[in-house]
Design brief:
The chain is α/β, with parallel strands linked by helices. It has 20 helices and 25 strands.
Length: 729
């Protein structure tokens, strides 16, 4: 059974060599998920099963042009209809229809709506011959109506269908994990010999080559799109469910294309886990550098979900790669109407364009402590209690990732509403810590001693272990007992810390020299904040800072403090936080986040911060959902069902639920999920525990109840807590 999400970063391990001894067998218990924690000694990706000799690997940091500056990776140009894609062209935005492809009227209308919203390409699912026949009419109707938006056929299991639709569409997406697998069984198999393993490659070549030749002849483009959840049994037997397996799976198909001198294709490496997704794309780019390949990249986090969570996951994965100069087309996969994907897609594209055009970065330095092939969270020390401490300071930071909230005196003085916005429970008017309560607060201004309500709020928060951080100069003027004094790193050694301060924290702006970083850390801060100066690239300056912190031998917890202005709307907060901070957290660089905005609601900023930590696979404070964005294959109303399931199960932190319209991407797409709700047939649902189906053919009307009972049967259910009515103190 799949392990629960939490602080552990879940990556799939390959089947151990001992399991490969006795021929072609079905894997069962041996394929159970492993949970890899920060201190894991699991083998690195390349040592699991390398596609090339180990001595051919380039230096660890070489997966992008420059890890100290955003420079787009140089690629060839791929032509999709009238759209040019590659490093010499703007990043291309795309989406995918959700209508039944056989419904020509509905599909044509949806493509138009997407194009009008900014989509430069639109993908349509084509699962059978009826859909393929409809595609010709869809293309004809769109052209007649003046829409030349390139259309992409999404193909799984159906080579003959791909051949047919290549006659009228501009691009074909093939999934290497299931293109040649008409059985749709997703079997786990072990292979005894290389001959047996290679025999299937020969069979794939026979099936795939006609499509390659057809696309070459007609000038049709192709995406070789690997999905983490649907790697073939053969790939899994040798590589396991790993980024290395994803890359090699795509390369098998690319070698066939290259054999026939067909190069009008792009790659993708999609996963629902942003960490796996980022790791796979980086490994893909790394391997292409070694081979001298220059194919463009299509970026996307698959099954990201809906709303802010879906946007956050996509921002973490896509944004992290764009800031490294990787990515030539993007799709934000949301469980929402297809045209609604275009706004976050456009914002992410703009992040990539701006970073490359303005050359975001810092002066070159030799980065240390980050291995893109092997995730490991940086080790840090939590606060410890001292004998003379007047209050308990051990919980002002959290081991799985901390959330700090910037607060004003007015917010403090509001008391009960403030406690609720901070995520605290209330009992007879007193705040109590809950699972998603901010760990510490940063006072934007220290209240006047005469502000009794604000000062009372500070004391009450300290009593439940919430830390209070304030500028050292303000504390000197308006003392707050047991506060954490915040000092600028460049002045840390000379700052006069008032007696009221129980600890010191330092704040870095990203411009410090190595010597200044070392000196600031010598004051033994309880935490360090990174609040970059205007015009400084957060991603690159932070990488340099972490290198200097490592050189200083410090294990101080580091909090990413990102500030916004009134001009930044909520979508900006999510996209920028996910890209710039998430891009660091998915490398294990950072121990928490503080998102500050002058007018956004405190509750919103807190929830966004926790969403960022959960999306980065750090701290799990709510139910995790892996939900597909819907397409013509979907066997139920995904948006409606996902909302209904979320409403009834959203209070289960540590539980991950996959909601899938069909099983086309494979049960492996639920590798991070404890339970799965999957369309099995029209009107029928299959329920999974981990990757194993446990109930089949359940009626739609009762499936949600059955899912909840399944969660209860496995001891993962808790009833919703009813908040007590606040009573004035």
């Amino acid at each position: 059974m799949a392990a629960a999400l939490g602080s552990a970063h879940q990556l799939r391990a390959a089947a151990p060599p001992a399991l490969r001894k006795r021929g072609k067998k079905t894997l069962k218990a041996s394929r159970a998920m492993s949970v890899v924690r920060a201190a894991s000694t699991e083998p690195k990706i390349e040592s699991v099963a390398a596609a090339v000799p180990s001595d051919a690997f380039l230096p660890d940091g070489l997966y992008c042009v420059d890890n100290t500056q955003t420079i787009r990776r140089k690629t060839r140009t791929v032509t999709i209809g009238k759209v040019k894609m590659g490093s010499d062209h703007p990043i291309v935005r795309q989406t995918m229809t959700t209508s039944d492809t056989r419904d020509v009227e509905a599909t044509v209308a949806e493509v138009k709506k997407c194009a009008d919203a900014g989509a430069e390409m639109v993908r349509i699912t084509v699962q059978g011959m009826q859909e393929a026949k409809a595609c010709a009419e869809i293309k004809k109707r769109l052209v007649e109506d003046g829409y030349e938006t390139p259309l992409i056929a999404d193909i799984h299991f159906a080579p003959k269908v791909a051949m047919m639709v290549a006659e009228c569409f501009d691009k074909i997406r093939v999934n290497p994990g299931n293109f040649a697998d008409g059985r749709k069984k997703f079997e786990d198999i072990l292979y005894e010999t290389d001959e047996e393993y290679n025999a299937e490659i020969e069979e794939i070549e026979k099936i795939f080559t006609p499509l390659v030749l057809k696309c070459k002849e007609r000038g049709v483009a192709m995406r070789i799109g690997t999905n983490h959840g649907s790697l073939s049994a053969r790939t899994l037997s040798r590589y396991g469910d790993t980024p290395a397996g994803m890359v090699e799976s795509a390369f098998e198909f690319a070698r066939i294309c290259r054999k026939h001198d067909y190069h009008n294709f792009v790659f993708s490496m999609k996963a629902s886990n942003p960490l796996v997704m980022v790791q796979a794309y980086r490994l893909l780019a790394h391997e292409m550098y070694k081979l001298g390949w220059d194919y463009p990249l299509h970026l996307g986090v698959t099954e990201a979900g809906e709303g802010e969570d879906g946007r956050m996951k996509s921002s973490i994965g896509i944004g992290a790669l764009l800031l490294d100069g990787l990515g030539d087309t993007i799709r934000v996969s949301l469980t929402e109407a297809s045209h609604l994907e275009m706004e976050p897609c456009t914002r992410l594209r703009d992040v990539g364009h701006k970073a490359a055009e303005e050359k975001w970065g810092v002066e070159k330095f030799e980065e240390k402590g980050r291995d893109f092939k092997d995730f490991a969270r940086r080790a840090s020390d939590l606060p410890v209690q001292k004998e003379d401490d007047a209050i308990d300071l051990r919980n002002i930071l959290h081991r799985d990732g901390s959330v700090l909230s910037a607060v004003t005196p007015a917010q403090l003085a509001s008391e009960d509403p403030f406690y609720r916005d901070l995520g605290a429970k209330l009992a007879v008017g007193m705040p109590l810590r809950d699972i998603a309560t901010s760990d510490s607060i940063l006072l934007t201004e220290v209240p006047a001693p005469s502000d009794e309500k604000a000062m009372r709020s500070i004391r009450r928060l300290q009593e439940i272990g919430v830390g209070v951080v304030a500028d050292v100069a303000q504390l000197a003027e308006r003392p707050v007992d047991n506060a954490v004094a915040l000092v600028a790193a460049k002045a840390a050694t000379s700052a006069a810390v008032p007696d009221c301060a129980a600890r010191v924290a330092v704040v870095f702006d990203g411009t410090e020299t190595t010597e200044e970083v070392k000196a600031a850390l010598a004051v033994d801060p309880v935490m360090a904040l990174i609040r970059v100066a205007p015009g400084v690239s957060r991603l690159h300056a932070s990488r340099r800072l972490f290198t200097d912190v490592l050189a200083a031998g410090s294990s101080v917890p580091v909090i990413h403090h990102i500030q916004f202005t009134d001009a930044d709307v909520k979508d900006d907060v999510v996209i920028q936080s996910g890209s710039q901070v998430g891009g660091l957290l998915c490398d294990g660089l950072g121990d928490g986040v503080l998102i500050e905005h002058p007018t956004a609601e405190l509750d919103y900023l807190r929830r966004t911060s926790f969403g960022l930590l959960q999306g980065s696979r750090m701290r799990n404070t709510k139910t995790e959902y892996v939900s597909c964005p819907s397409c013509g294959r979907t066997l139920f109303d995904l948006q409606e069902v996902t909302a209904a399931i979320s409403e009834r199960t959203g209070h289960l932190p540590g539980v991950a639920i996959a909601v899938m319209g069909c099983i086309v991407n494979g049960p492996g797409e639920m590798a991070d999920a404890d339970f799965g709700y999957v369309g099995g047939a029209p009107g029928k649902i299959d329920l999974y525990v981990g990757k194993e189906v446990v109930k089949r053919g359940i009626d739609n009307d009762t499936a949600c109840d059955e899912l909840i009972q399944l969660i209860k049967d496995h001891g993962r259910w808790v009833d919703k807590e009813e908040e007590e009515e606040a009573v004035a103190a």
